[in-house]
Amino acid sequence: MRIGIDARMYGSGFTGIGRYTYELIRNLAEIDKENEYVIFLREEEYDKFNPPNERFSKILADFPHYSFAEQIDFLKLLNSSNLDLMHFAHFNVPIFYNKPYIVTIHDLTLSFYPGKKMNSFIRRSAYKLVLRTITKKALKIIAVSNHTKMDLQKIYNIPDERIEVIYNGVNPEFGTPSKTSRPDLMKRFGIQKPFFLYTGVWRDHKNIVGLIKAFAEMNKELGNQYNLVITGRLNPSYHEIPDTVKELKLENDVNLVGLVSEDDVRALYQYALAYVFPSFYEGFGFPPLESMLCRTPVAASNRSAVPEICGEGNALFFDPASVPDMKEKMRIIATDASVRQNLVNRGIERVKFFDWKKTANAVLKIYNQIQ
């Protein structure tokens, strides 16, 4: 078959979806010796992408996500590309594309937490139209967790057999020692003490303000012995995050370090006292698994897909709506070395379950069933 993959979110800049597309293509190149692949990329990644072998080619598809150009010009490009099957790695699909395709749905965050991205009636309506259309037309829907599958069925009433749950993997490189030394990392990011870590985008459902408040209470109770490091692009739309730091007078305790390199992320994971994942909603959740691979204990939300992915007993779970509960779990991790070690030991075993080659094999099986 001649299979297209929408890789317009390819690369680390789009966090989870970019990583999914990158790993899927990389592993398909290793395991599939029969099909031909056409990779559709935005300009920046198109220039950097080298097809891994002769069965892969690339096409420039520099159409912004969620745009009219995506719905019109990308549609024309797809129709002219002579594809047997198209795989959209995210739900932003041209709604009038009528050739065979499958789609991966990572989460339905915008259905439950529209946040500041979906601040207009037009945007909300377009989102609902696209999802209603693709969930009817796709030959197969890949959900990255059982929780995402249940959300899809609850909202769109999709038959069970049309949705396949295929877990993401975790890149084993996260488990290799960082090139960055601890003193260098601490100096560059202004970290003075043992630190808790949060990595990810700034969005309402990520509950970063709740994390800051829980950290403030825990740190005060324990004599201000710790720092909290928060990565992610400094987004003026979410001014409440730095505002909360100032309001609680935490400028010397909470480090908002911005977007950092992959090696620095790995170093932060490896040197952190613990990783905290306070989300109200996730369709999967890479950071807790990446932390486990780095032998870092995890405290995590007990909502949405997070318990499913972390697994029972492999993280300290808390109610993300309860600042006291989150504070207590952080306090336990900070003060009990035996708890930390137990979480590290269990986490290392848990993360072995998530393998990108296994993911790619399961996706390839779907490709081959459709032909």
Keywords:
371 residues; alpha/beta; Rossmann fold; 2 domains; seven-stranded parallel β-sheet; six-stranded parallel β-sheet
According to CATH, the homologous superfamily of the largest domain is: Glycogen Phosphorylase B
CA(first)-CA(last) distance: 7 Å
Shape summary: globular
CATH architecture of the largest domain: 3-Layer(aba) Sandwich
Please give the domain count.
2
Most strands sheet:
7 strands, parallel
* CATH T-level fold name of the largest domain: Rossmann fold
Instruction: Work out the strand percent.
Output: 15-25%
Alpha plus pi helix count: 15
Which structural class do the helices and strands define? alpha/beta
- Using only C-alpha atoms, the radius of gyration works out to 21 Å
- Unreliably modeled segments: none
CATH class of the largest domain: Alpha Beta
Mean pLDDT: 94
* Strand runs, count: 13
Helix content: 40-55%
Description of the molecule:
The chain has two domains: 2-169 and 355-370, Rossmann fold (3-Layer(aba) Sandwich); 172-353, Rossmann fold, CATH 3.40.50.2000. It is built from 15 helices and 13 strands. The strands form two sheets. The chain has a seven-stranded parallel β-sheet with strand order 3-2-1-4-5-6-7, sandwiched between helices. A six-stranded parallel β-sheet has the order 10-9-8-11-12-13, sandwiched between helices. It has helices at residues 15-31, 43-48, 68-79, 109-112, 121-137, 146-156, 182-188, 208-221, 240-247, 262-271, 286-293, 306-310, 323-335, 337-350, 356-370; strands at 2-6, 36-41, 56-60, 85-88, 101-105, 140-143, 163-165, 195-198, 227-231, 254-258, 274-277, 298-301, 316-318. The chain has 371 residues and is of the alpha/beta class. Helix 1 crosses helix 15, helix 8 packs parallel to helix 9 and helix 8 packs across helix 13 (323-335).
